[in-house]
Amino acid sequence: MPNMEFQLGLALPTPSIIKGFDLNNLGLDHPKDMGGLEARNKPARCFSDKSKRSFEQAFGNFEAECKTKTLLLLWSGQPNEEEDHNDQKKRTFSTIDDRNDAEEVDQVVGWPPIKTWRKKIFQQQQQQHRVGRIGNNRVADKENGSRSIYVKVKMEGVAITRKVDIRLYRSYQTLTNSLITLFAKYKKCADDDYTRYILTYQDKEGDWLIAGDIPWQSFIRSVQRLKIVRNWG
Amino acid sequence: MESSELKRSKDSVNSCESARRSSFPDEVLERVLSLLKSHRDRSSVSLVCKDWYNAERWSRTHVFIGNCYSVSPEIVARRFPRIRSVTLKGKPRFSDFNLVPENWGADIHAWLVVFAAKYPFLEELRLKRMAISDESLEFLAVSFPNFKALSLLSCDGFSTNGLAAIATHCKNLTELDIQENGIDDIGGSWLSCFPESFTTLEVLNFANLTSDINFDMLEKLVGRCKSMRVLKLNRSVSLEQLQRLLVNAPQLAELGTGLFSQELTIREYEELESALSNCKNMHTLSGLWDATGMYLPALYLACTHLTFLNLSYAALQSVELAKLLAHCPQLKRLWVLDSVEDKGLEAVGLNCPLLEELRVFPADPFDNEIVHGVTEAGFVAVSFGCPRLHYVLYFCRQMTNAAVATIVQNCPDFTHFRLCIMNPGQPDYLTNEPMDEAFGAVVKTCTKLQRLSVSGLLTDLTFEYIGRYAKNLETLSVAFAGRSDWGMQCVLGGCPKLRKLEIRDCPFGNAALLSGLEKYESMRSLWMSACNVTMNGCRLLAREMPRLNVEARGGMPHHLSLLSEMLGTRQTENY
Question: What is the separation, in whole angstroms, between the first and last Cα of chain B?
Answer without folding.
Answer: 32
